[in-house]
Amino acid sequence: MVEDKELEVNESDNKGLNFVEQIVADDLKEGKNGGRLNTRFPPEPNGYLHIGHAKAICMDFGVAEKFGGTCNLRFDDTNPVKEDVEYVDSIKEDIKWLGFDWADREYYASDYFPQLFELAVRLIKEGKAYVDDQTSEEIAAQKGTPTTPGTESPYRNRTPEENLDLFMRMNAGEFEEGSRVLRAKIDMASSNMHFRDPIMYRIIKHPHHRTGTTWKVYPMYDFAHGQSDYFEGVTHSICTLEFVPHRPLYDYFVDELADETYRPRQIEFNRLNLTYTVMSKRKLLQLVKEGLVAGWDDPRMPTISGMRRRGFTPASIRNFIDRIGYTKYEALNSVSLLEHAVREDLNKISTRVMAVMNPVKLVITNYPEDQVEMVEMENNPEQENSGTHKMPFSREIFIEREDFMENPPKKFFRLAPGNEVRLKGAYIIKCQDCVKDANGNITEIHCTYDPDTRSGLPGSARKVKGTLHWVSAAHAVDATARIYDRLFNVENPSAEPDRDFREMLNPDSLKVVENIKIEPFVAENASPGMNFQFQRIGYFTPDKDSTPGNLIFNRTIALKDSWEKEQKK
Ligand code: ATP
Ligand code: MG
Fold first, then answer.
1. Does the CB atom of residue 302 touch ligand 1 within 6 A?
2. Nearest Cα residue to atom 14 of ligand 1
3. Are the beta carbons of 494 and 278 closer than 8 angstroms?
4. Residue 14's pLDDT band (boundaries 50, 70, 90)?
5. Is it the case that residue 12 has pLDDT exceeding 70?
6. Residue 515 contacts by C-beta under 8 Å, 6 or more apart in sequence?
7. Which domains does the chain have, with CATH numbers?
8. Which positions are annotated as active-site residues?
9. pLDDT at residue 548, as a whole number
10. How confident is the model at residue 7 (pLDDT cuts 50, 70, 90)?
């Protein structure tokens, strides 16, 4: 009977599950925890979320969604010195933006401070915890090494009465920070270093953003996390691999609370590490505080808010995370994989428009001086029913300086004296000559147009090798583009322990291009969160710093020039 069941599980239900989902499926099948599934995402509100957190969010919320369970949002707010409501708010915004919902299950580890304190008191009374008067340096020196046992503290054998008295006074504020800690009395010779009398509570006198000055002692992660999971009814506590050695301690404290009917279970997966960036919140905070970036949401940051401002979409981030998957091995993922996912999504959703980054004027000498035609531009060839918009065409236009060469090499199919090109969506033009200033810089290109080649007219089928983007000079709107490159110029900055990570910052990670020319449709419709494809250039999104008189666009990502490829055929 049992064998049949296993076969059934393996053959049908569990196809395509990652290893965490497999564990969850098995637990549900076995009816553990009364068949309940409850996960949690436990950010510490000491910084903004980054793409690594997105991986954890997709796992925690994703597995709950997949099996009909629930996922709690729990702020792990056990260190009041580093935490702030600004971070709480940004975290909530980012999770929602990614497309996940914790409904009314918003919890805080600080909600459990009373129960945790009560448990600590119980452990003291049972002789399982003691107050140590040593400094953290002394305690660290006694820890031993993985191969040699640690040394017992001289305060280890205090009586429960004395320990209780001291712990109460610690919490009453009688002692200075760092002067005493509460430790679990477990085993200084354990082969697991985390079992060598771990610290449960330390004294912190900084007010807490939720509990104010109620507490003067705060629980350590290891004494808070498993129990918080338990108090909340969490069944699967999914975290990253660095917590593997903490798991026995997680279980040790949970054992003090749990019975046979329910206990949370910790499962670990590999962190997300990305090339050319750092993921440590401490380092990211440093970049922000030292003004090396323009804030947590600087579009070069690996933060979710930075990626949002840069124009990345939730779908692209989720697709990327799906593709890299969840394993038990640490890896470094290539940022190009993320960029590929971004291009893929933006190609599907972004509105095609014209913008000229490095403009030079082009005059169509045989086009009537006061005439303006509205030509029709497709909004998105990848999307049915995305419609069209109108764009003005006139005698004077701007094209990219790079699209003209006076003395071109052989296979230059763009504009050169005597050459013909198509202006995308409009006419075929032929270059006659160009005008230069005293320094030899080209100031104007002179062309003639073939009136018969506009789309819809008989001559429109005529083939030329190059197609250029353009904007009407009189109608174009000036704007600023911010062009981003990798924040670091070293593939894995975290793997260079001897160098200050700030030395590895890419000095060219931001280039500002002023006076680009955009078609009026973009200026009229731009608002943050919109995705445009500037044709032949890249994907752009309006930045929040834009004002009606000064439009600013972030380049989300460059475009592979597909038109150029076609021209080479
Ligand atoms: P800290 O050093 O401040 O603890 P942290 O990056 O671990 O930094 P948390 O707020 O504690 O930040 O993380 C919340 C959750 O996100 C944890 O479950 C953690 O395991 C997970 N997480 C953090 N960084 C990554 C990452 N790079 N990849 C996957 N998951 C991550
Ligand atoms: Mg952490």
1. no
2. 43
3. yes
4. low
5. no
6. 359, 478, 480
7. 4-269 (3.40.50.620), 281-351+479-568 (2.40.240.10), 360-469 (2.40.240.10)
8. 44, 271, 281
9. 85
10. very low
Pocket test for ligand 1, best of 44, 246, 267 (most atoms within 8 A of CB): 44
Residue bearing the CA closest to ligand 1, atom 15:
43
CB 110 within 8 A of CB 78: yes
Does the beta carbon of 283 sit less than 6 angstroms from any atom of ligand 1? no
- CA nearest 72: which of 236, 220, 256, 227? 236
Q: Is 45 in the pocket of ligand 1 (CB under 6 A)?
A: no
Residue 537 three-state SS = coil
Length reported for the chain: 569
Q: pLDDT tens, 92-134?
A: 999 999 999 999 999 999 999 999 999 999 999 999 999 999 9
User: Does the pLDDT value for residue 561 go beyond 60?
Assistant: no
The residues, any chain, with a CB within 8 Å of residue 138's CB and separated by 6 or more, are: none
Residue 534: pLDDT over 60: yes
Distance from the alpha carbon of residue 49 to the mean position of ligand 1, in angstroms: 9
- DSSP E strand boundaries for 164-296: 181-184, 199-203, 217-219, 236-240, 265-269
Residue 12 burial class via C-beta count within 10 angstroms: exposed 0-12, middle 13-18, buried 19 and up: exposed
Residue with CA nearest ligand 1 atom 2: 281
Atom of ligand 1 at shortest distance to CA of 279?
27
Over residues 382-407, mean pLDDT: 96
Mean pLDDT is lowest, of 76-80, 402-406, 460-464, 466-470, for 460-464
Protein residue closest via CA to atom 10 of ligand 1 = 43
**Whose CA is closest to 65, among 83, 90, 96, 39?**
39
CA torsion angle for 362, 367, 368, 373 (degrees, to 10)? -90
Residue 489 to residue 487: CA distance in whole angstroms: 7
User: Which residues is 563 bridged to in the sheet?
Assistant: none
Question: What rounded mean pLDDT belongs to the chain?
Answer: 94
* Ligand 1 centre distance from Cα of residue 94 (Å): 15
How far is Cα 89 from Cα 307, in angstroms, rounded to an integer? 17
Which pLDDT belongs to residue 3? 37
- Strand intervals (E) in 207-349: 217-219, 236-240, 265-269
Ligand nearest the Cα of residue 279 is 1
- What pLDDT was estimated at residue 430? 97
242 CA: nearest ligand 1 atom = 20
For residue range 209-257, list pLDDT tens digits in order: 999 999 999 999 999 999 999 999 999 999 999 999 999 999 999 999 9
In the reported structure, the alpha carbon of residue 215 is separated from the centroid of ligand 2 by a whole-number distance in angstroms of 22
